[in-house]
Give the backbone structure.
Amino acid sequence: MRKPIVALIYDFDGTLSPGNMQEFGFIQAVGTTPAEFWDMSNRIAEGQDASNVLSYMKMMFDTAKSKGISLRREQFKAFGKDVRLFPGVREWFSLVNRYGAAHGVKVEHYINSSGLTEIIEGTPIASEFKHVFSGTFIYDENGEAVWPGIAVDSTNKTQFLFKINKGIFSSHDNKLLNSSIAEDKKRVPFTNMIYFGDGETDVPCMKIVGMFGGHPVAVYNPDNDKKKSIALKLKRQGRVRFVAPAVFTEDSKAFKLVCAIIDKVRADSTLQEYSK
């Protein structure tokens, strides 16, 4: 019997980390504060009626240039080393992988984020992911960032769910994404997806995963009452099925929830085999 694949798909900022990834090194390096940086970025977006994501990428480019900071992949990765993570995140992946293997399920982890791939690649958990779908820059022949390559907002994040569903590990490949594939040939059924997000920017992904029988989960910073209120509101509104603190230890609600979903996927897969 073929092992079913369970895909755990994570937003990053506010989900695996208690803040935005730009706030753990980059913003300090350009001599501003998180509040000032995001205020300037939002003013660009509002004043130009522009994408919030493209606006923050422009802010990163402009402020780094004004301070003489080289925006190379290596520099972004260096900022990634300082990104804070929620309790248990570093050990989380091996915990879930072991549980899945012991219960006849192959577990894969993915990032689906409006942040930057280059910073995520510098974090201590970068190697845990099957693929990272998030923003990137385009680099010139000298390795310097010169232009946004991919900007990921709350709605175009949904395309990556369908790429995971079909087993497409490329951001630019839309031909295969839009091709017709029989349901039983798709690599990861939506029913085998667990989506972790922390806020309203995750709602489109949460809705799609839930609509197709998957498992959307709202997590929240346990030290932030406002974040908890947002997560509970998402549950009341039917955007998610489950709510849990952003604690990823072995005794956490998040781990027990994932274990229960893995058990369900394994049981459903076994029943499907018996029905043939």
Observations:
- The mean pLDDT is 93.
- Strands lie at 5-10, 106-116, 131-139, 145-150, 193-197, 215-220, 242-245.
- Residues 207 and 239 are 6 Å apart (CA to CA).
